[in-house]
Design a protein that fits this description.
Elements lengths: L1 H4 L4 E4 L2 H10 L5 E4 L8 H7 L3 E7 L2 H11 L7 E6 L17 H12 L4 E8 L3 H5 L5 H17 L6 E6 L3 H6 L4 E3 L1 H5 L7
Function: Pyridoxal 5'-phosphate (PLP)-binding protein, which may be involved in intracellular homeostatic regulation of pyridoxal 5'-phosphate (PLP), the active form of vitamin B6.
Keywords: Pyridoxal phosphate
GO molecular function: pyridoxal phosphate binding
Length: 197
């Protein structure tokens, strides 16, 4: 609560169950960002039970977008800001849309979100590869996200730039240099998470 007492209101959470518990117990003016991998069967809880869910930063399918819209529409909760997760590194252990071969799908999901009453397209998110982050050079994964955002903004006719959620505790400085508007630095602030049982 020290950060809250210093005026911070935006917090991220990786796990739906923990977010449900924290959002019920902590002050209602906290703006929660869900930054973990979202399973389809958790969309109902996330959209239907967390009134102050500000953003979902890991949307990776049209099916999940439709579920979120459906369950958020069942109440008077505010819109959820959506970041599409893009797998710019191409690593198999990471979720997200393929920025090249999956562009048509990305565009379809973005257009669907634009038509929603309870979802709002806010930006794109990526997790850069560890090797890119440690290279000391420009991060090609971040560059790919910037390029995709420009292409998508033009295709959607957006009047303002999409936000870019990229960079974590180990590489946020380079991410900011390359245009990040949001960074995920929980490990630097709160320390490493203990292993889950």
């Amino acid at each position: 609560m020290a950060l809250y007492d210093h005026g911070v209101r935006h917090f991220g959470e990786n796990y739906v169950q923990e977010l449900l518990e924290k959002s019920a117990a902590l002050p209602k003016d906290i703006q929660w960002h869900f930054i973990g991998s979202l399973q389809t069967n958790k969309c109902k809880d996330l959209a239907g039970k967390v009134h102050n869910l500000f953003a979902l930063e890991t949307l990776d399918s049209l099916k999940k977008a439709k579920k979120l819209e459906e369950f958020r529409s069942e109440n008077e909760f505010p819109k959820i800001s959506i970041f599409l997760q893009i797998n710019t590194s191409g690593e198999e252990n990471k979720s997200g849309f393929d920025p090249v071969n999956g562009y048509a799908e990305i565009l379809e999901v973005a257009q669907y979100i634009q038509s929603c009453s309870k979802l709002q397209l806010r930006g794109l998110m990526t997790i850069g590869s560890v090797l890119q982050s440690k290279s000391g050079e420009e991060n090609l994964d971040f560059r790919a996200l910037v390029a995709l955002s420009k292409k998508l903004e033009a295709a959607l006719g957006l009047g303002e730039a999409l936000e870019l959620s990229m960079g974590m505790s180990s590489d946020f400085e380079e991410a900011i240099r390359q245009g990040a508007t949001n960074v995920r630095v929980g490990s630097d602030i709160f320390g490493s998470r203990p292993p889950r049982n």
